[in-house]
Every structure is written in C-alpha cells, then in structure tokens.
Amino acid sequence: MRHIKIFDTTLRDGEQSPGVALSVPQKLEIAHGLARMGVDIIEAGFPITSQGDFDCVNRIAREVRGVNICGLARTHKKDIETAARALDVAEKWRIHTFTSASDVHLEFMLKKSRAEILEISDEMIRYARTFCDDVEFSAQDVMRADFDYVIQLFNVAIEAGATTINIPDTTGYGTPLEYGQLIARIRDEVVRDRNVAISTHCHDDLGMAVANSLAAVENGATQVECTINGIGERAGNTSLEEIVMALYTRGDYYQAKTQINTKEIYRLSRMVSRHSGMVVQPNKAVVGDNAFAHEAGIHQDGVLKNKATYEIMNAELVGREAGVLVLGKHSGRAAFNKALEDLGYHFDKDRVQNLFNRFKDIADRKGALGSEEIRSLVETSDIEIPEVFKLESIQVLSGTHVVPTATVTLETPGGPKQHAASGDGPVDAVYRAINAITNIYPVLENYRIEAVTENSEALGEVSIRARIGEIVYSGNGVSTDIVESSARAWLEVVNASIANVGVKKEAMTAI
Ligand code: KIV
Ligand code: ZN
Q1: How much is the pLDDT for 264?
Q2: Is 79 helix (H, G, I), strand (E, B) or coil?
Q3: 258 lines ligand 1 (CB under 6 A)
Q4: 9 lines ligand 1 (CB under 6 A)
Q5: pLDDT digit string, tens, across residues 96-131
Q6: Alpha helix locations (H) across 130-239?
Q7: Which distant-in-sequence residues (6+ apart) come within 8 Å of 298 by Cβ?
Q8: Per-residue DSSP letter, 288
Q9: Residue to mutate, 16, 138, 153, 167, ligand 1, most ligand atoms under 8 Å from C-beta
Q10: Class of the 2-276 domain?
C-alpha cells in the first residue's frame, strides 16, 4: 500500500470561499483538530496577504505540533521571505510557492511570457530553498495549459530544488481520464526516478474534483490537497472526507492509504461548517445528514437484517453515532465528562466545568439531552471568549397584535444592568436591549437557526455573523428557547468584539 499524504488547505483555499472569514481562535481550533485527525500538512494561510494572515500562520506554526505547517507564497521574493518568517518557529514547515501555466493566466494576469515564467520559477524556487529544505511548487490552471509547457515548467522546478510538485486544476476543467494521463506523463517524463512527490489540487466546478484527485492517485500522485467539506473558491476543492473514505473503503482497488484517524472526520466537518457558516448539504457523501439514513422500506428492511446490505462503510467509522447516550438532569460531572470523551472531546477542567454548568441549566428545563444536543452545547461554546457581558435573564412579550418588547438583564463589569426595548420582532427587541446595555451596536449580516434534533422540543441553535465597522464577528447560541439562543449568539459577538477576535478579510493582492 502506498502512503498518500493529506495536505489540508481548509485554512487557505477553503477560507477563500465567498463569504467565509475565520477568526484566529477559529483557525487555531481547526488546525489543532486537523493535527489530531492526522493530516500530514496544514496549509495555514498566505502570509503576505495581510498582517492578520501573517500573525495567524505564525501562531499556528508556534502552537500546532506534530504536523508540517505550510504557507503560500507567489514566486516573489517578498512573499517567500514573509512566509519563511511566519513559519520558521514551526516544528516542521514548508514553503508553497506558485505561479501559473496557462496562456490565459500568463497573458492577462501575470503579463509574462512562457520563457519569463520558467526563469522566475527557477530563481524563486532556489530562493525558497535558501530558507527551507521543503519547498512545494505549483503552476495554476494546468488543465487549460499546453501540456508540453507544463512538462517543461515542472522539470525546471525539480532542477531548481522543488521537493513536491503540485499540479492544480485551478478551474476544475479537467476530466478524470485526461487529468490522470497528465499526471502519468509528469510521473514518467518529469519525476522519473527523482525523489520528488507529485501532488494533486483539484477544484470542483464540474463536480469532478474528488474523481480527478483519485485519478491522480492512480497515476502516481502521493499527495492530495483538499479541504474539510470541500469548501473553497467558487464550487470548492476536493473534499477531504470523501477522498479519505474513498481510499479507506476502496483500498483494495487503489492500493493506497492515508494516516487519517477517520473517527475525527464528523467532528471536524461540523466545526468547519459552524465556523465558516457554510451549511453541509444533507445528501453530501460521508458527512451529510442523510449519508447514513435509509428511507425506502426495502432499504430499511435490508439494513435492519444486516447493515452490509446497503452500507459500504458504517457511521461509527467517521465519528458519527459515537456512544449514543442520554444524560438527564441528575447526571453528575463524571458521567458528563465520560460523554464528552465518548464524543471525542478532550478539554481541561475549567472548560468541562463551564460546559457542565450550561448542561445543567438546559437539562433542568428540558429533562434529558442526547448526543446531538451535547455536541451542539459544546460546539456553540467552543471558542473561549471572555464573557464580559453575560446573560442573566430575558423576558419577552410578543404576539400577533402587540409590539414585541424585551426586557434583558445582563451581568456586566459594573454589576447587573437591565434594559427594555421594542423591535420588529422578539429577537430584534432583545438585540436592541443588549445594544443599549453594552453600548455596542453590531450590524447583523447573517442569521441561521436550526433544530438540533427532529422533535418540537428540540434545542434551537442560532449562528450569526455581524459586522462592527470593518470587522466581522461570529456568534453561536443554543437553548430550549430560540429567543434565548439568539441572545446568546448576539452576546458572543459583543464579547468577541471586546476580545478583538473578529476578521477583517483583505482582498488578495494582484498576482
Ligand atoms: O487552485 C490553485 O491553483 C491554487 C494554487 C495556489 C495551488 O489554489
Ligand atoms: Zn486552489
């Protein structure tokens, strides 16, 4: 079995998804999750693009151990130097430098000739090697380029010292057969017997990113670049969970395997969905709500008799249905702690105590909580933002013929404070009351509500994104009462703004 390296680019290409902006604590949490899951390389960002991106890559490089941390750089001296400065505190690190291969990119974006690109790539790869022995080189848009030129360019890259050559189908134009054939040419005509890894990086514009990546593996690629839930530019990237489970389930066919701990997949998928605000479609392979659900009577009958009738992998394998459990209001801290561990969470004492208090609060009102509800509780309080303003109580009056009014009491640094406000609806009234107490006025950009389970007594989970000035903050809240969930999410935004953990997404400078 060949070992296939998983190069995760959720924090770089994934973050380039329209509308996605991850804060530093969110990126750190995802990076730690990726390391625990066993990815080989984490592309942590593009340090030259902003001070914020530089700082974040630098923090991940400093704090996330046991995995190679990579930073992106154009084939520019300043990009490479900046990436090296951000990364050199890491245990293991890589500079990933890139240019383009297609004529349309060369003519309109780079405004360079093919010969100039060969020369610049040669010079910049050599320059990157002066900082680090691990240098990856990519040329964008290979599938719309002249393949003979692609061969020539990657030959130059290897001569200059690239240790991994990445072959991006940037526009998702390739088909599996065609892309696989190009990878085979690169294996035979470029890499030959040299100790250089071939990497695949596919976009999903025609829905073929995973198929194309697998075709690359069949033809000699030993690294797959991918993102959690397949998020990324436009239609996204190759989805990590699909590629990993395809190699796991069809190892017999591909004769290749990864070192991913598959049980971590579902937790990370939920984390990325929550932080990015990108909902996973119910029928998404591996991580979608329906991926293991059987509706048709004939299927249900088969699965009840033997799961193998309609399931090619089981839900536990990807960390779903881990320890189906129910905790009640009389459950103690030990049982709660054990439930957290069964669900794959490992927190320090303070965090467990905090979560336990929230659990007790909800269990007192609701009775019992199942696995999904405990997951939701953890995930809506997963970023440790100091609670400068804390919810004490809410009273709401609303109905068909009344002006919605809310009275909110918050614990504040100056003691408890109360305010009453009216609004267009109960949530609007609550938000106005909170704004008046905190004197902070976020502008709501996105509001999402979901029932955690299917029944009408389900917990309601609210996720929001709100802007204060140029900075976007996200907040989550869960409760038996959706107005309270909304208030908790709003307070998380307020507290995040005080802790300064928002995101200012700067546009990528022109290539
Ligand atoms: O899609 C692409 O070509 C990229 C490169 C920077 C590798 O993301
Ligand atoms: Zn890409």
Answers
A1: 95
A2: helix
A3: no
A4: no
A5: 999 999 999 999 999 999 999 999 999 999 999 999
A6: 147-160, 176-185, 209-218
A7: none
A8: S
A9: 138
A10: alpha beta
**Full-model pTM:** 0.90
Q: Phi and psi for 172 in degrees, rounded to 5?
A: 60, 40
Sequence-ordered list of residues with C-beta below 8 angstroms from that of 46, at least 6 positions apart, any chain: 12, 53, 71, 72, 73, 508
Q: What pLDDT, on the 0 to 100 scale, is given for residue 427?
A: 97
Is the distance from the beta carbon of residue 438 to the nearest atom of ligand 1 less than 6 Å? no
Query: Which residue has a Cα nearest atom 5 of ligand 1?
Result: 140
154: left (phi over 0), alpha (psi -120 to 50) or beta: alpha
How many whole angstroms from 141 Cα to the centroid of ligand 2?
Answer: 9
The residue contributing the CA closest to ligand 1 atom 8 is 13
State how far the Cα of 232 lies from the Cα of 214, in Å rounded to an integer: 18
Q: Is 140 in the pocket of ligand 1 (CB under 6 A)?
A: yes
Closest by CA to 65, choosing from 93, 84, 96, is: 93
Whole-angstrom distance, CA of residue 345 vs CA of residue 102: 45
User: 336-347: per-residue pLDDT in tens?
Assistant: 988 888 888 888
Tell me how far the alpha carbon of residue 99 lies from the centroid of ligand 1, in angstroms: 9
Atom of ligand 1 lying closest to residue 12 CA: 8
Domain 390-499 listed as CATH 3.30.160.270: yes
- Nearest C-alpha neighbor of 410 from the set 395, 436, 430, 392: 392
Ligand 2: centre distance to CA 184 (Å)? 21
Atom of ligand 1 nearest to the CA of 9: 8
Question: Per-domain residue ranges for the chain?
Answer: 2-276, 390-499
